[in-house]
Every structure is written in structure tokens, then in C-alpha cells.
User: Which sequence fits this backbone?
């Protein structure tokens, strides 16, 4: 599949939640010429399995799913992302089946709208929860094995993102090790390049090779990529060592995407590349949908040029 057929924006650029907002964004993505899209049904809303166990049923009814599936049939690739789906907060006196219900519903939602890949943030541990890192890893493996079974049944792929657990950006979790131990062709990795830059402390273009080494280490387990610009803003927004991701691919971006795209082409990476660009503008307010969409259009153009360039 051509690169342009598998590169597109996330509905997070919309900022708003709800079926109507997402359908509006999808319509505009079609008009902009995108052939791939990622649907985040919760957007930035943190779904809690105990407080709000039926979130997806409430926000996306059967009719909404049918209409969304019809709209999405215009795309070559559709993915679904948990976004702020912090549902599996390990806590006392709550069974795993209750904690995992929104994740299972997310898999069914993806199937209902005709998606191909579902990705999740790593599972979260409530503050004060007394679980070791080994116990957390076992918990992830157990969940991933269950999700892989559902993915097999629903004809999907599922993946963990390299998002830090419990907001600890200084800790580069070995998600690949967990994915390997799940031992399923249906469960892999969503590699977010912006997150990796923050986790590794990448601050200049010459450091990009460290990102490439990380991708190379897990390229065969990587189903999907998230791409965004990384800037040294010094602002307190998704910050690690004054770095901020989810930014445009403009002159302030510290990553060398020429190197990254050249590497991906050499390795014949053929998965979806989602442009997860939603940022704060000069007024320190979240950029508008129009600004975010324009940034994604420009990013797609730039990445496509790198892909076809002979100089990298």
C-alpha cells in the first residue's frame, strides 16, 4: 500500500468528544484527501470502568456506529485508539472483568465501525496500590493475552502504546518485552515517536539516531506509528526535560524525520502512520481544529517528500 494511503490524522485534533464531533472531523479529513484516520472515541475523557462502565454504549449507539462505518468506508486504513482510556486502574475489591470491560467494548466498537487496529495505553495503577513492577508486567501480559483472543475473534490487531505508566516520563517501560511474552500475532506495539523522544530525552536532530535504534529493535512487532513534532518549549505540557510532543513538524521540531522516514522505507514498514498533532498555539490555548488539520496536511506533505527523497 502506498505511503499516502496509510497516513492520516487522529480525531484528537478535534479536541471535542462525542459522535457528532468525530463525524465532522472525519468528513473534513476526507475533504483534505487523507486515506487513513484514527478514531479516539473517548477523545481526552478519562473513562473509569467503575464510575462510567457503559461510556461507549452511551456515546456511540448502534445507529451512530453504522453511520460512522459508512463514512469510514472511504478510507484505506482505520485505527482506533484508547486515548485517555485510563480504565484499568488496578484497585482493591474490583474484579479484573469489571476493570477490563471498557477495553473489551473498545474492541467491539472497532469491529463495529470497520477498523483494522485497536491500541491501548498501558494499564494504570492507582496511587498507593502495592504492586511490584514484575506484578504489573504479569498483569499486562494477562490482559494482552485476553485482548489477543478478542482480536482473533473480531478480525482485528491490538497493540500497547509506549505511553509511560502512571505518568512517569523518566521511565522507559519495556513494553516490547511484554508484547513478546503475550505471544500472539494479533497483539503488537504502537510506537509513538514523540513519546519515545520524551522518554529518551531527545533534544536535537543529531540525537534522532537513538530513536531509530529503538524503532529498529521492535520494528517486527510494530503494527502502527504515531508521529508528531517535538519541541524544546520549556512549557509544562506533556513535558520531560522541557520537551513537548504533539507539535507540528515545523522549524522548531528537534527530530530529523528525514532520517526516520528513510529508515522506515529501508525496513519496508507498511503499517499506518497516524499524525497525532494537537498542540498549543502562540496564545497558549489549544490550537483550533482548523490549525491542527492544516498542521497534519503539511506534515503528510513533508513526510511524503522525505519518503521519496534520494538524499536521505
Assistant:
Amino acid at each position: 500500500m502506498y505511503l499516502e494511503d496509510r497516513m492520516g490524522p487522529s480525531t484528537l485534533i478535534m479536541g471535542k468528544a462525542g459522535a457528532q464531533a468525530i463525524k465532522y472531523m472525519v468528513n473534513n479529513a476526507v475533504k483534505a484527501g487523507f486515506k487513513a484516520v484514527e478514531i479516539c472515541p473517548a477523545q481526552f475523557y478519562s473513562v473509569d470502568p467503575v464510575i462510567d462502565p457503559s461510556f461507549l454504549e452511551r456515546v456511540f449507539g448502534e445507529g451512530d456506529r453504522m453511520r460512522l462505518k459508512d463514512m469510514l468506508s472511504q478510507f484505506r486504513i482505520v485505527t482506533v485508539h484508547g486515548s485517555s482510556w485510563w480504565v484499568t486502574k488496578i484497585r482493591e475489591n474490583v474484579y479484573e472483568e469489571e476493570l477490563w470491560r471498557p477495553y473489551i467494548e473498545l474492541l467491539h466498537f472497532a469491529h463495529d465501525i470497520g477498523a483494522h487496529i485497536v491500541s491501548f495505553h498501558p494499564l494504570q495503577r492507582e496511587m498507593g496500590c502495592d504492586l511490584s513492577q514484575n506484578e504489573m508486567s504479569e498483569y499486562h501480559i494477562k490482559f494482552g493475552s485476553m485482548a489477543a483472543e478478542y482480536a482473533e475473534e473480531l478480525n482485528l490487531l491490538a497493540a500497547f502504546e509506549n505511553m509511560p505508566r502512571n505518568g512517569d516520563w523518566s521511565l522507559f517501560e519495556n513494553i516490547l518485552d511484554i508484547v513478546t511474552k503475550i505471544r500472539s500475532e494479533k497483539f503488537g506495539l504502537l510506537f509513538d515517536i514523540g513519546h519515545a523522544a520524551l522518554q529518551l530525552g531527545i533534544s536535537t536532530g543529531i540525537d534522532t539516531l537513538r530513536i531509530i535504534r529503538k524503532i529498529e529493535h521492535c520494528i517486527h512487532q510494530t503494527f502502527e506509528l504515531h508521529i508528531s513534532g517535538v519541541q524544546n518549549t520549556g512549557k509544562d505540557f506533556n513535558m520531560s526535560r522541557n520537551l513537548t510532543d504533539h507539535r507540528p513538524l515545523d522549524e522548531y521540531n528537534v527530530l530529523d524525520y528525514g532520517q526516520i522516514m528513510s529508515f522506515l522505507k529501508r525496513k519496508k514498514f507498511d503499517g499506518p502512520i497516524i499524525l497525532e498533532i494537537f498542540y498549543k498555539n502562540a496564545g497558549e490555548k489549544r490550537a483550533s481544529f482548523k490549525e491542527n488539520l492544516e498542521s497534519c496536511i503539511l506534515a503528510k506533505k513533508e513526510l511524503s517528500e522525505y519518503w521519496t527523497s534520494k538524499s536521505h
Remarks:
- Residues 236-240 have pLDDT under 50 and may be disordered.
- The first strand starts at residue 7 and ends at 9.
- The two ends are 21 Å apart (CA to CA).
